[in-house]
## 1
Amino acid sequence: MPTPPGDSNRAASALPVLFVPIWATGFISARAVIPHADPLGFTAVRFTGVALLLALIAMASRVRWPGTRAGWRDPIVAGFLMQGIYLAGVFWAVSRGLPAGIAALVGSLQPLLTALLAGPLLGERVSGRRAFGILLGFAGAGLVLAPKLGATDASGIPPTALAVSLVAVLALTLGTLWQKRTGGGGDLLANATLQFVGGMACAIPLALAFGHATIDPVAPLWLGLAWAILVNSVAGILLLLALIRRGAVAGVAALFFLVPPVAALLGYLLFGEVLTLVQGAGMAVAALGVAVASRA
């Protein structure tokens, strides 16, 4: 029987809502597994599992793979930056004490950095409204970060971990700009698979060079790995593709601003990570700045 139009519309409207907790729990899974595994080794295993699963799904779906060398190279380079450096950096930063909500906030600054760098790198004009949004977003982030920078209590922000997280977001931004510059054409599922191959090309050498073999094979580790592969990555990518095909990308962009507070709430409920009232207000200001800059 065909699906009634009302049910189909309700299912489509529910998809963006699912995207927020799926993305937010990526920071929580990092917080959950770090006591049991090396963060660099974990990300290498994660990317390998995701790349293999997406490749199997892509082959079963008979996707059209790129027909040129650039078609293979461009998504792999984007994945090296957007998946490999970014997620490896986030996991390492969280393993060094960066709270999950703060890691999510730093990640949410990526649209601001993209807007800021699009002018000098891509020749795009930055409007006054977008410039205001950029300033507002960074001011809000400052309210969140400054009160606890270098503090030694459980809610403190280690400067080195914060610096690595910022470098990771810069890599995410450069990967986004690279993808925008190279067009990002081709089959979406094939591109997603190649991006995780690029993530593997980054994470495996990092794990071999700087990681260690410490693994505590307990249930939280295996559950965290399964969640990171099946939910955060594979389900997240397939959900994003479904949203793109349904034309609901704008809904994802709007709900993406909720990721930092959701991650902060989960961090509080699961790990006792606490934000002050000033930090909560700063998170709201940062989200508003990202919204203004993204819609300008």
Note: The chain has a mean pLDDT of 79.
## 2
Amino acid sequence: MHVGPTMYAGPITYTGGTVGLGRNDLVSGEAVALDLPPASLGRRIVSGVIDVAIALVVLIALIWVSAKVGVSLRDGAVLAGAFALSSVLALIVLPTAVETLSRGKSLGHWALGLRTVRDDAGPIGFRHAFTRSLVGVVEIFVFFGVPAIVCAAISRKDKRVGDLVAGTYVIRDRRSLEVAGTAVMPPYLAEWARTADIGVLTDHQAMLIRGFLHQAPSIRDDVLRAALARQLVQTLAPYISPAPPAGADDVDVLNAVAAQRRHREWLRLQRDEELRRRVLR
């Protein structure tokens, strides 16, 4: 029976796990899954302790300077204003400036190899850093970090309250990105793939193919692996003309399609770049 694309909506599952995207995977424009794992709660706590210690040192230093100035002027209003300004500078302005200029790295993040990113994995801006710092004054300094730890412990990406409000989360910046399922063109299918009309696949289909190719070697059941590959090839049938050569292995067909799509995307980017150069001359 022909299985069309509308009949295949969910992830492919098998007894050893799930073939597809993990919950923390992000997808590039070429539908390549990138694993951006969130930082563990332990790392976040250590990083937070470093940031809090630095903020308190800066705050104490500013208060000491303010006290000296206030005493010399003998003006209580100036002294109170200087104390308030010191708190704002140490707890909000400085953390916001550091995270904004470093694109998501506080001093604690630098020490632990972490980085704050947006929920879509893009670099944070001033608004995100300011929101995190502002909320952090309450959840970390006023309530001694208890709301932050509880929230991070129960949230899916170990987010504290400031992350939930700002739309951010913290990743392990020193871990290299894992590209899921780099397809290799089977030589005997190269000519077919080069001349085939491969239509625009949905993001969901492209991601499933990448996920399957990435995890196929770990599926020990040959029959099951072949059945999963056949199901995916059937979903591609309406998008590919002519059909793959008779007798072609389904896993090889998926590799050929993925590799050819990557090659054509690379050529398109090259053409776009050449056009830009000509326009800007």
Note: The beta strands are 12-14, 17-19, 25-27, 33-35, 114-118, 168-172, 197-198, 240-241.
## 3
Amino acid sequence: MERDEVECFLILAEELHFGRTAERMRLSRARVSQLVQRLERRIGAPLFVRTSRRVALTALGRQLREDLEPHHRAIDAALARAAAAARGVSGVLHVGFSSPPAGEVVLRAAEALRASHPELDVEICEVPLSDPYGPLRKGEFDVQLTELPVREEDLGEGPALLTEERVLAIASGHPLAARRLVSLEDLAKVVLLTIAGELPDYRLEHHVPARTPGGRPIAHGPSVTNMQEALMLVAAGKGAFLTAAHTATYHARPGICYLPFDDAAPVGYGLVWRAGDTTGAVRAFARIALEVARANLTGGELDSADLTGTN
């Protein structure tokens, strides 16, 4: 059943007059008749009794009106709430983060956003390593601060808000552990742990390249779904893991060395959202997250009062 058929039916059921119905819908009387006839054909029986003097509902028409009206009102109310949320900054904003540094930016931005928009609740949650875009696509997150690049047609991507160096997590007993620095060519000397889950090819290649820049093959080892699994296997000598520099600080543990690269591009983190789904709350969060990232970069303090009025 088409929405215009439902609206036409309900308005005509209220007005019982084709002319007034046409005026309210800003349609011609002929178009109103077409919509009613199309709906009646779809149902298979008349919904109105039409004479030269009056229009009346049939028994089936009255039943359909009673069934449809509450659902139609609920749909209109839901659309109105969605439009209001898109215009303003209210309700609940779900924000994801993919690393502890990204989480700190998200947390500070959430606190500032709550201060400037107390009518908005902000809930934050970690993005799973094995499914970096699934929760966002399902609507579990409205926006997330995650690793770049993001080459997904249905997702929008902002600029990098923060960057950090890449490191190789490796068992302390591995021959490379005695080195101060490693290069991407050294990956040919290790077995890299891979990541199980819903990762696009370019993202998997970023974490687990198949070859070094010089073309030498890189061996792949067991699959992991989260950081704790990866570090447990690294410490056990089952493989090495490409990660970001923060891991040495947040996941320091015996049996693992974190070796910086002298030739690897840094890891960048940017905001990602569903394309075409940027509500007022998402835009406000993006502006505040940028301010937080700048404050972190310069060592300055973010004053949430300066952000009051951000929309």
Note: The chain has ten helices and twelve strands.
